[in-house]
Write a structure and sequence with these properties.
Distance between the termini: 34 Å
Family: Belongs to the bacterial solute-binding protein SsuA/TauA family.
CATH topology of the largest domain: D-Maltodextrin-Binding Protein, domain 2
Main location: periplasm
Subcellular location: Periplasm
Keywords: Membrane, Signal, Transmembrane, Transmembrane helix, Transport
Number of strands: 13
CATH superfamily of the largest domain: Periplasmic binding protein-like II
CATH architecture of the largest domain: 3-Layer(aba) Sandwich
Radius of gyration: 19 Å
Protein name: Putative aliphatic sulfonates-binding protein
């Protein structure tokens, strides 16, 4: 299957109004010991997760002085579009969108990685609906975002029970549209991720059919681009270090992060608490094991005709930042 997105800068700008991106006010990251690298780093975030993460962390370590301009997106695909169009310098995405972007020849590089349990990535169904087991998806419709971690979970879950992908209709919808379709009975299942999963469980009475725990690598990345690394490597390096420290802090104090996340994003407090407790991202090295996990994702997409045949992901990892 051919890759259908326009990865040009012009294509990104033309579609910008539909991406749901919101540019937040710049944040100043300061430290008194180094005034030699002023500048601006443009960061693509998803639903305020990174921005809240940094706000929750009382970081007092020395670093560089620069501004962060935040761009908020509803999911990973437009983050990768923005990176490839050089509209942002750094973006947060999951492992499946990273692999899907590489298959589409996006100019992106992983600069840090984080692993979670995968519990918050799930296929949701109505408790009294026709789908009560993964095998029941045969002949039915599941919605997700193309190339997302939800999409990859569907592929893995179907393979696990021996249901061919072509026996299931996969409808590519944005998260909010997919939820509305499931609640209306227009589709039979919805593959998504937190906070959408937690919202569906706690506020819409939806049931987890299957989650990604033990089925997917559970990786998330900060991505950058060759152009950004060439022009602003020191800022990218400093930002990654701050996020790493904040991840460790949030893992130790999930309630503190959840409170800030709820306050800044408007997500209900109980949803934020569930999401943060079970996600528990922690930094991991960009080692051979991580690269092998990422290669397996690209290979899975290629196997079902979604591009990336013969693609070697190793050059897409900036192992020395």
């Amino acid at each position: 299957m051919a890759w259908g997105r326009d990865w040009s800068r012009r294509g990104f700008l033309r579609a910008g109004a539909g991406l749901g991106a919101v540019i937040a006010a710049p944040a100043l990251l300061t430290a008194c010991d180094d005034k030699k690298a002023p500048g601006v780093l443009k960061v693509g975030d998803q639903r305020g997760g990174l921005q809240a993460l940094l706000s929750a962390y009382p970081d007092d370590k020395p670093g560089l002085d620069y501004q962060v301009e935040w761009a908020q997106f509803p999911n990973a695909a437009p983050v990768i579009e923005a990176l490839n169009a050089q509209a942002i310098d750094v973006g947060a995405v999951g492992d499946a969108p990273f692999g899907f972007g590489l298959a589409g020849k996006a100019q992106i590089k992983a600069v840090s990685a984080y692993r979670s349990s995968g519990e918050g990535t799930a296929v949701l169904v109505k408790p009294d609906g026709p789908v009560q087991a993964v095998a029941d998806l045969a002949g039915r419709t599941v919605a997700t975002s193309k190339g997302s971690i939800g999409h990859f979970l569907v592929l893995r879950a179907l393979a696990e029970v021996g249901v061919p992908v072509d026996k299931v209709t996969i409808a590519f919808l944005a998260p909010n549209d997919a939820k509305a379709a499931l609640l209306a009975g227009s589709i039979d299942a919805w593959a998504t991720w937190d906070p959408y999963t937690a919202l569906g469980q706690l506020h819409d009475g939806l049931k987890v059919l299957v989650n990604a725990q033990g089925r997917m690598p559970g990786l998330s990345y900060l991505l950058s681009t060759p152009a950004a690394l060439s022009a602003r490597r020191s800022l990218v390096r400093d930002f990654v270090a701050r996020i790493d420290r904040a991840r460790e802090y949030s893992a130790a104090k999930p309630d503190a992060y959840a409170a800030v996340f709820a306050q800044q994003t408007g997500v209900p407090a109980e949803v934020a608490a569930l999401m943060i407790r079970r996600t528990n991202f922690h930094p991991v090295a960009l080692d051979d094991g991580i690269i092998a996990d990422q290669q397996s994702i690209v290979d899975q997409f290629a196997k079902v005709g979604l591009g990336g045949d013969g693609l070697d992901v190793r050059p897409a990892f900036e192992r020395v930042l």
